[in-house]
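Note to self: the last two entries modelled the partners one at a time, which told us nothing about the interface. This time every component goes in together.
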Amino acid sequence: MKPFRFLPLALAVLPLLASAADPMTIKLTLEPDLRNGQRLYAICASCHLPEGWGSTDGAYPQIAGQHRQVLFDQLMRIRSGERDNPAMYPFVQERTLGKGYQPLVDLVSYISRLPMHPRHQKGPWRDHREEYREGETLYQANCAQCHGKLGEGNNEAAIPMLRGQHYPYLIRQVGLIRSGLRKVNPVMTAILGRLDEEQLKKVINYVSWLPVPKDKLAPSLDWRNTDFN
Ligand code: HEC
Ligand code: HEC
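The predicted structure of the combined assembly is written out below.
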């Protein structure tokens, strides 16, 4: 019965590997009502804009096209105050969006279907540069096991898609996570702690150049979300 000797250990480690694995990760099995999602998104569009593309200076993240489960988890964390976001806090409360998980499911299903920014902000080093290649090696060794070889993330495990996100936003989040101001998956926090600031800049630079599949992108920079005219 040898395998069972390791079972307790496996059970202890598993939750750490499988996403943030806390009570906030609730699997989305409810059927989304996209019309209600669109209606609720008007609350968000005042900051995130109708397209959900964020700002290239990194003040606002791109949320269009992100995995539903990731969006849901982040909204739950911001709602509870675990992820500190005072500007957004009042807009994600039940009083604003409606009671229960259904409105959140409607909302995140709408956002995840929005086409993404066709020219998000990238880092300073292109693929012929040594900094890019160092970032690639570090990313594939330290981050790809969760965020995916292509930066695609994982909906089921609530792991964010990193490709397509604005470089300055990612740099800021990594800084917040390293300093302990934003609490995430403890395995990831430990890995970030092993890399110095220069290495992280190279990793994030590499991530920012990972291509987003064409069918996820808006056709042009002039594309406008006509749900909000
Ligand atoms: C008052 C402005 C404002 C409003 C309104 C607002 N947000 Fe945000 N949101 C922000 C800012 C600023 C951030 C980035 C916070 C940070 O830097 O950690 C953010 C972050 C997020 C994130 C995290 C993205 C990530 O990948 O880290 C999600 C998801 C999000 N917003 C969704 C929404 C939704 C859905 C709504 C509507 C219910 C909404 N926001 C309304 C300002 C706003
Ligand atoms: C053990 C799995 C795991 C590993 C390894 C990991 N991450 Fe993460 N990462 C996550 C999860 C889960 C989140 C969701 C954040 C949360 O819990 O709020 C996340 C969030 C992030 C975010 C915030 C994204 C956003 O939209 O707000 C960034 C940036 C990030 N990771 C970068 C990295 C980098 C760079 C590495 C490698 C040096 C790495 N991660 C390694 C699991 C991991």
